[in-house]
Design goal:
Layout: E1 3-7, H1 12-21, E2 25-31, H2 35-38, E3 46-50, H3 55-58, H4 61-69, E4 72-74, H5 78-83, H6 86-91, H7 103-107, H8 109-118, E5 133-142, E6 152-156, H9 157-169, E7 179-183, E8 188-197, E9 202-215, H10 224-227, E10 237-244, H11 252-269, E11 276-284, E12 290-296, H12 311-316, H13 323-336
Parallel strand pairs: 1-2, 1-4, 2-3
Antiparallel strand pairs: 5-6, 5-7, 8-9, 8-11, 9-10, 11-12
Helix pairs in contact: 1-13
The structure holds adenosine monophosphate.
Residues 124, 139, 148, 182-185, 189, 237, 283, 293-294 line the site of adenosine monophosphate (AMP).
Length: 345
């Protein structure tokens, strides 16, 4: 008998509820300070306490013994990616649902852009300082910044140098190599939540959301005249929650095709094909073209909206189907057809 296991954060509730609905035992590796929260939910069979989610604690002997005793399959999510190095995740000796080798492509900006471009998905143009001619807007990103922290918007070289020198003085950056300048795309943010089944070889669109981010979603509540009186000189994109979204139906076909091209490109470029959930993250511009600034090659927290299914999952399944439950269903089908190697790496 297999158990499904994940780290206590991000989308753990959805993942373990889905696992229980598919009749798996469930196990949660849980930071001590979060035990109180997760103890409330009866679909969690066992909590394994850890000090925090760093590799040395999650992969300690006592946790690994528990995972082995319970015959666990680990479901990775954003908290794992944020707390561990790619090399650490690749070396974990636990059956892992999903393609662990793609996480390297998600973490590296150059690889990420290559995979996106080769999938025929538009991305924002990369810019140099000389492109800042005062006529259009650019977004400056700090490498490795979580949640867009420290990002700033500029249109001219002078503006750029003001921000740049300030970050240098504060010791936040060491030089130009820490900054990545990109065309700012005016459009509305959309997160397309897909699932690829290596068993049926089909891409499913399971949901769509947008993020609710502070302070970028707060700034529109202040009239332009008063905006300059706030003390906000850099825009943060701290995620506070997610908002459900449905797409104009005429955009759905191309959304599906982007998902399919992404899966084809992963098959071509990476040593294992795509497995399970992934998300294309970008904006739709005024001509309804999708321009992607990110992808996530694993479950995203925006799927938490749809614990009971989304409008799109309901079109595919006549029962509540969250992404978490879909993962467990795929594992169940793989066990039944003796094809677990297709969904684990
Ligand atoms: P990222 O760290 O790339 O996920 O970016 C954080 C946030 O910045 C995103 O959620 C977007 O809202 C915004 N963003 C990133 N890149 C761009 C871009 N090129 N144009 C417009 N908005 C962007």
């Amino acid at each position: 008998m297999y158990s499904i296991c994940t780290l206590g954060s991000h989308c753990a509730l959805q993942v373990l509820k889905g696992a229980k609905d598919e009749n798996f035992r469930t196990l949660l590796i849980c930071e001590e300070k979060r035990i109180n929260l997760y103890n409330r939910f009866r679909f969690i069979d066992r909590l394994v306490p850890v000090k925090d989610y760093r590799y040395k604690n999650v992969c300690s002997e006592h946790v690994m013994n528990d995972l082995r005793d319970y015959n666990c399959i680990l479901i990775p999510h954003g908290t794992m990616i944020a707390n561990m190095q790619v090399e650490e995740i690749e070396s974990m000796r636990v059956p892992f649902f999903g393609n662990r080798y793609i996480l390297r492509w998600e973490a590296d900006r150059v690889l990420k852009e290559r995979l996106t471009i080769e999938s025929g998905i538009r991305i924002p143009r990369s810019l140099s300082i000389d492109d800042l001619d005062g006529r259009s807007l650019a977004i400056a990103k700090l490498h490795g910044a979580a949640g867009g922290k420290g990002y700033f918007l500029v249109s001219s070289k002078e503006q750029f140098m003001g921000y740049y020198n300030n970050l240098l003085r504060k010791g936040i950056i060491k030089g130009m190599e820490d900054i990545y300048l990109q065309e700012y795309v005016v459009g509305v943010p959309v997160y397309l939540q897909f699932f690829y089944s290596p068993l049926s070889r089909e891409v499913e669109l399971l949901g769509i959301d947008r993020r609710y981010e502070s302070d970028v979603d707060a700034i529109g509540r202040i009239p332009a005249m008063q905006q300059s009186h706030t003390n906000i000189d850099d825009i943060t994109y701290t995620i506070v929650g997610n908002i459900p979204l449905v797409l104009r139906e005429s955009l759905l076909d191309e959304a599906y095709r982007m998902g399919e091209r992404f899966v084809d490109t992963v098959r071509k470029l990476i040593k294992h094909e795509m497995i399970g959930p992934f998300c294309l993250e970008g904006v739709y511009d005024r001509d309804a073209n999708f321009i992607a600034f990110e992808f996530s090659a694993r479950i995203v927290a925006g799927t938490n909206l749809y614990v009971n299914g989304s409008p799109y999952s309901y079109l595919l399944y006549d029962e509540p189907m969250s992404t978490g439950r879909r993962i467990a269903r795929e594992i169940r089908l793989a066990i039944d057809s003796n094809e677990l190697d297709k969904v684990l790496t």
